[in-house]
Amino acid sequence: MYLQQSxxxxxxxxxxxxxxxxxxxxxxxxxxxxxxxxxQFRHVLGPLSSxxxxxxxxxxxxxxxxxRPTTGYTKKxxxxxxxxxLTKHLHITSPVxxxxxxxxxxxxxxxxxxxxxxxxxxxxxxCPLPGTTxxxxxxxxxxxxxxxxxxxxxxxxxxxxxxxxxxxxxxxxRLGQNPAAFGEEDLRFYETVFKAPGAMRAGFELxxxxxxxxxxxxxxxxxxxxxxxxAMILGGEGSLEALKSISMAEEVDEDVVEGVVEGSGHWxxxxxxxxxxxxxxxxxxx
Length: 286
What we know:
Blueprint lengths: L1 E2 L7 E2 L1 E4 L8 E6 L13 H6 L2 E6 L16 H15 L6 E6 L1 H12 L4 E7 L7 H6 L6 H7 L3 H6 L3 H12 L8 H12 L3 H10 L1 H15 L6 E6 L8 H8 L3 E6 L6 H4 L1 H12 L2
Parallel strand pairs: 4-5, 4-6, 6-7, 7-8, 8-9
Antiparallel strand pairs: 1-2, 3-5
């Protein structure tokens, strides 16, 4: 657990795994999405560390076992939280490999935009990045109905309260291609996490600041140009966004390739963890 000295109310929980033989090729930062937590990477944390990487999976602000303040959910703030975790708490000085999924993909883009010299490579995807064409085209469509719903003040908290498991399971079922990815134990874990005071509210706040994120992303693009870090846009073969991902990434990344997790929908690290791990390692070691 990392306690930010500037604000004792901000605690960032994380899990980490070190290479078993002590030989370290580098550091991988795994950034989860919504509605999940660092638990999302339970199947890949071990294999990535066994491949020689110090692998870190935090619960970003508001998620999992981290604290749930009322403010600070722009992806700029969340990326800064994680950068502080790595540099000030874990004292990591070498550039790290950033992997972000869903909301975590938005945070990964912010991290690379803010701290490019601290990033060795960038893998992100399964999210319509605010400020891109796909975001503007899709944000009010039925496929992304929850974007608007989550932005309504107070009402989502009221309606979802007491029905957290059913609400979460809707997304796991609807967006996935492998029904076995979320067993009953996994559902109980996420139900417990998201029933905690403020947990669903913190999750909705991630969406309520998308338009602020859009302003940040467009400003970075205007002032700094496209992200120069070697990047891969990684998504599931059966994902809703599969056909549009590379064109979106090319709007913000200068050097980007596309990766596909075969046999997976949206939840790539859980539906096909072996394929996910292989894709990640082939890219960062390529």
